[in-house]
Amino acid sequence: MSTKKSGEKSTKLVYEFVIVVLLLVIIILCVIIMNKRNNPDPIIKVTPTPEPTGTISTEEPTQTPKPTVTPYELVEYKGRIEHIFFHSLIAFPELAFTQTDKKALVTSTWFKDFVTVSEFKKILQALYNDGYMLINANDIFEERTVDGVKRYEVKTFLFPKNKKPLIMSFDDTNYYSNKLGYGTVDKLILDDKGKVVTYTRMKDGREIISDDNEYIPIIDKFVEEHPDFSFNGAKGMICLTGFDGILGYRTHRDSPNRESEIEKVKPIVKALKDTGWYFASHSYKHDAMAGYNVAQMRDCAQKFKNEVTPLIGETKIYVYPFGSWKTGEVQDILYKEFGFTYFCSVGVNYYIKTRADMNYILFQDRANIDGWTLVRNGHLLEKYKDWGTPRFPSMIVDDIYNEEERGISRQEAMEIYSEMDNS
Ligand SMILES: [Zn+2]
Questions:
Q1: How many domains does the chain have?
Q2: 270 in any annotated domain
């Protein structure tokens, strides 16, 4: 009996202890919740969703663990917004750098205006190492009305702490008919998983499909591996003309198979837009705007609106061919009649401004990172000219420049350019 009684007593004690502990836990939880309510966390956190992974292989997709990213701490960004630009990549250097005469080689458009796949990959890594993160150019500016006049200005926006916003644009992703076979790919296509890859038909009849020889699939993969290189899923700005179709498809007015090409390009445009890519006008004809009169400008912009806008959607961004522009009534047509509000030119030094002499549109120069800059202007990429502060410190041009592919050393190319300066 006495054993049973003492057993009952100890069980009762245990129950009482558990109840006290539970009460204590509830009280502590209440205190934490009340405290949280009174002092809400001031930091806005966004967890970026990495793109689903996948390759061209026909194997069943395996459960690849998705890269994990710590939530970003967003802070108001008021610093510089870099904008760099490229053309399509040289996927086949042996087709691009063919001149045996060294001067002809280094003055060719393929040498001066392009970078190769290997160079581009090093550039991407350098940008990432320096804390740059892609942003959609449409998200950096806003319309304001001051004294009844509309102005287009860089806005203050939230951006991950310790990251620097970067706009990357790519001109002439048209794969012009008369430029095929000189080292770029022929067109963009979709693989069996709906990913944008490239197609190239070589002279010997071989067909090459790749996800590793043009900027679009390369950046797509880079962002999959480094989700913190893309803010809100942004990729790059694709700048298109219209006179020879877009993205390798002959969608222009006098194309013999225009209708079928339009149908073929639609799913590619959709796949690009769905994965963070966005479009800008690079004019219809790719002429130097500084030489245009009012009628020519209107005709050029109208053709773009008729033939390209229906395929890619509206855009406010205009990218001058050759970086050529002028102020005045010819330029004004682009804003007043066609609604462009953000204009991009070319200039390796940093420049972004709302221009009173151009109806208060936003104007930005884009640093051209190409053969010319790699050979001659590395110092302008390293530090800001005006401030002397680091710009792209990891972009070591000597390391990026690919002598083997280009067929001439950087030093020798530099000497030829210098000789031309002096002659
Ligand atoms: Zn161009």
A1: 1
A2: yes
Q: In terms of residue numbers, what domain contains 392?
A: 83-422
pLDDT of residue 149: 95
> In CATH, what number is assigned to the domain containing residue 234?
3.20.20.370
Which position has the token pair 């913190």? 228
73 occurs within a structural domain: no
- Helix, strand, coil % over all residues of the chain, rounded to 5: 40, 20, 40
Residue 339 C-alpha to ligand 1 middle, in angstroms?
21
- State the distance from the centre of ligand 1 to the C-alpha of 282, rounded, in angstroms: 7
pLDDT at 323 over 70: yes
pLDDT digits (tens, 9 = 90+) for 168-184: 999 999 999 999 999 99
Distance 286 CA to ligand 1 centre (A): 6
Is residue 44 one of the residues assigned to a domain?
A: no
3 state DSSP class of 223: helix
- Of 92, 93, 111, 91, nearest to 101 by C-alpha is 111
3-state secondary structure of 152: strand
Its pTM stands at: 0.84
Ligand 1 centroid to residue 48 C-alpha, Å: 33
In this structure, what DSSP letter does residue 383 have?
B
92-144: pLDDT as tens digits: 999 999 999 999 999 999 999 999 999 999 999 999 999 999 999 999 999 99
134 located within any domain: yes
Distance, CA 384 to ligand 1 centroid (Å)? 26
Ligand 1 midpoint to CA 185 (Å): 16
Q: In sequence order, which residues have a C-beta less than 8 Å from that of residue 324 and are 6 or more positions away?
A: 288, 289, 290, 291, 345
Residue where the block lists tokens 């972009």: 395
- Side chain identity, residue 329: E
CA of 56 to the centre of ligand 1 (A): 30
Cβ-in-10-Å burial (0-12, 13-18, 19+) of 145 comes to: exposed
Say how many Å lie between the CA of residue 170 and the centre of ligand 1: 9
